[in-house]
Amino acid sequence: MVLKIFFPQCCNRADSGLLVGRWVPGFDSVVVLAVIHYPFIPGQVKKYLSEMQSAIQLELTVLGSWSMPKDGQEGMDSFLKDLSTIFPQGRWLQLSRELGKRGFACQVIGRDAAVPPRGQPKEGGDDEKEKVIFIHYDQRKVMLSHLHPAHGQEPAAEGVSELRLVFQTVAQSQPLFFLDKYDDGPIKLTHWQSEGREASILVELIKQASVPMCCVLLRATGVRVTGSWRVLNMWPVRFVSSKLSTCVQLSHRTEHLQTISSPRRAQQHADFMRKANIFVSFLVDIALGLLLISWLYRENRIGRLANTLVPVADHVAKELQELLQWLMGAPAGLKMNRALDQVLGRFFLYHIHLWISYIHLLSPFIEMILWYVGLSACLGLTFALSVVSDIVALLTFHIYCFYVYGARIYCLKIYGLSSLWRLFRGKKWNVLRQRVDSCSYDLDQLFIGTLLFTILLFLLPTTALYYLVFTLLRLGVVLLQGFIHLMIDIINSFPLFAGGLRLFRPYRLAEGVKFKVLCEEPGMSLHLMMEINPLKLSTAVQQYRIPTYSCYPKDSWAALCKKLFVGDLIYPWTPLHKGSKED
Amino acid sequence: MLNVTKLNRKRKKTDNATWRESGAPHWLKSDKDKGRRHGGAGRLRTLPTASVGAMGADGGSEAAPATPWRKVLYERQPFPDNYVDSRFLEELRRNVGVRRYRYCAVAREAGLVAQQVSCVAAVLTLWSYMAQGRLSPFMLLGASLLCALLGYVLYEALGGPRGSERTRWADLQSAAIFLAFTFGFSPILKTLTESVSTDTVYAMSAVMLLAHLVSFPYAQPSPPGSLSLNAALFGSVCLASRLPGALHAFAMLTCALLVFALWPCLLHRLRNRAPWTFPWAAVLLSLAAVTGLATLSLGGALLLVLALLALTLLCPLLLLRLQRHKDNIHGPWDEAEIHEDLSRFLH
Asked: In terms of DSSP bridges, do strands A91-97 and A61-67 run parallel, antiparallel, or are they unpaired?
């Protein structure tokens, strides 16, 4: 059996004293947390330990004794052995180190018998000696780091492995490290913070101010969200606001604010990371937005933008009109049914005419609208992008309308054709059995069915062409909007805090540990140095992504093609319902 | 007889050589076998069901078992498992249910096919006249309506059971729906195939009319088959869209509907009620079609005459000649057919 002793680096040069730590349950290892120096009163030590135990919820015990004799301090061996009777343990460790030597000497005294010290040469055939391995660790780093589950493991399996228990022990023993050597107490400890705790005034001020600010923010966002404004709950307003991406982004950010401004501290590491990520992304967003505003409101850029907007809309409308004229002729040499062609073409032309009149009606107000809308960029770059996406949607509303008309006509035609084709063959769709059955029709049904079938069949190329053209246009607009949404999504969900932490403090996100051999002398125990293996950057980013209202298309390519062929309307960018957002 | 001989020959090869001496059934013995007289062979010969296949039976020197062979496998018998005796295939029957046709009857029934072909030819003739402008649509419309009325009167006069749900009022409604729909859609129909080339239209119509002829329910034309009626109407619509005016299209469609949808019902009733009129009607129709086609093109008329003659006179002859080669075998291995009237279980 190999006994692993996790020894903090800061205690390598500590004065002699008692070792305080924890036996890792279920494994043959022990974590040394601190050294209590002489002189001490055993009763006070025990009281202190029991206080710490109730604060930390870990079984802290006195593990053994540590002796690093300085000049003039000899002959402490018997004193140290007597200590083991004061603090009765299952196993008592006696570690000693000499100045100038690298290795430690270790004696493990069990309850029953003494194990001979390791310093002596090995006697042959003695199996009762315990091998001891010293693993040195950097206490501050291990305390601050969080061990992530290995790749492929579920988080539920946490807490089982030995390494995880060690990390948890050190992380949970934070109150143990509050006593430093300048405190006037009965007990003197050595640990990583015993030289004195660092603090900064700014950090303390922010911590004090954050609680009331959080409460204020919570109150503000709560009022808006609980919907004390009845008008916001009416159906038309809700419908419109679910389609405009600005409103969606607004509600998303409000939720984020609520998460940040909860006055309780985050208990879990994942919650803490989430809050930090949201906060940092918020700040970056607002900074970029302010940058955009400072660029936009200079040199009358808003005015120039407004002046180009109306001509652009006119240009789009003119292009559409030319397209329709082309379709009404003989497009690409295809032969269309002239009458239907004229009807559809004139209908769409009239639509475009209406739309252009509307834009011209609005043109005097556009500059003012843009000015006020541009101010909303101070809420963040994502808002500015959402506003752009909404403007694009509004400007191309007529394309959307045409697409819907074309798709509906085409869908009806395809549906009618498939049903009448079945009638042509004398069959019928059996809804109960979900299959095609034979059916004997009446004479009038047959007659009218055949007539309609012929008509629909010969009018199919015309309708199909209109549908194709408008679907392509609509897909183009959708692609543009999708690109903008992708940018918004990236800004929303990228975990900047986690990325920064991985780059500048890599030990905080640990994936595992690696060991370096410090001292391997024959006859002495093995000394290893434990170093933290940080998480890979890609894994860190993937794990700490902020969940957003994911706007990704939910249809696979095959389903999309089928929908296009049949004439179903495609809605690729509907935001998910709020209730299904994962938390 | 031939088959049985073949079987026996095969069996002979697989069994022992000794079987040949004494074992063949008596009705298959060749002359040289008849000459052999062995000890036990006499007994074998007189018993047609005797056990002649005993393995190792050696020229009748052994006594043949007295038990006859039974056609069961669940008892151990001294015969090999694949043994069959002289009663093999005696339950085979040939051509039991085959009807012997008579030429006159077949020719009469073939008249129905010929008559349908002439209907199609008649419709094509009328269409051609209207396309050339020689026939005014009003005249065609009037004539069609008159024929429809006459046909309806004849239908009612022949009497017979009518479906319980078809009243005169329902018939009038159907007629009104037909006329209204056709009239309403005729402007659309006129421009339907404007952009399609003429050859395509002709090809489509030809295919559709052919499909109509092939899938027509000659056995029972009264409820018209879906595919045949639809194909005929599709073809007529294609042709009607080539006519110069909307009224032409309307008239053409009415005529097509009359010929393809209503005439078979009347014909069916004629055949059932007054069978002696049926051949006359067929002949009359064929003559009319031939004459009409002749005014357009003589070559077409000649082709039509040849086709009709072939259908009516040649094909029945072929059928009768081929009947001789019919060879159906029946036996107890066929599926059982229920011949008694099971409707008594319904009550």
From this structure: parallel
Interface residue A445 vs chain B (CB under 8 A): no
Closest residue of chain B to A458, computed from CA coordinates: B192
Q: From first to last of its 347 residues, what are the pLDDT tens digits of chain B?
A: 444 444 555 554 444 444 444 444 444 444 444 444 444 444 444 444 444 444 444 444 444 567 888 888 888 888 888 888 888 888 888 888 788 888 998 898 898 999 999 999 999 999 999 999 898 999 999 999 999 999 999 888 887 666 655 678 888 888 899 899 999 999 888 888 888 888 999 999 999 999 999 999 988 877 778 899 999 999 999 999 999 889 999 999 999 999 998 899 888 888 888 888 888 989 999 999 999 999 999 999 999 999 999 999 999 999 999 988 888 888 888 888 888 887 888 76
Gap between the Cα atoms of A463 and A407, Å rounded: 9
Q: Look up residue A318 and give its two tokens.
A: 């003119």
Residues on chain A touching B233 (C-beta within 8 angstroms) = 446-447, 450-451, 454
- Interface probe for A, chosen from B178, B186, B195, B242 (most Cβ of A below 10 Å), is B195
What is the number of residues in chain B?
A: 347
- Collect all residues with Cβ–Cβ distance below 8 Å to B226 and sequence separation of at least 6: A423, A424, A425, A426, A440, A441, A446
Helices (H), A63-138: 77-86
CB contact under 8 A, A338 and B193: no
Q: What is the DSSP letter of B97?
A: S
Q: What is the pTM of this model?
A: 0.70
A426 at interface of B, judged by CB pairs closer than 8 A:
yes
> Residue B195: which of A336, A423, A448 has the nearest Cβ?
A336
CA distance A466 to A343: 12
Instruction: Output the six-digit token pair for B165.
Output: 């749900």
Alpha helices in A329-396 (DSSP H): 338-362, 366-375, 381-395
As given in the structure block, the two tokens for residue A430 are 């059996």
B216 contacts in chain A (CB < 8 Å): none
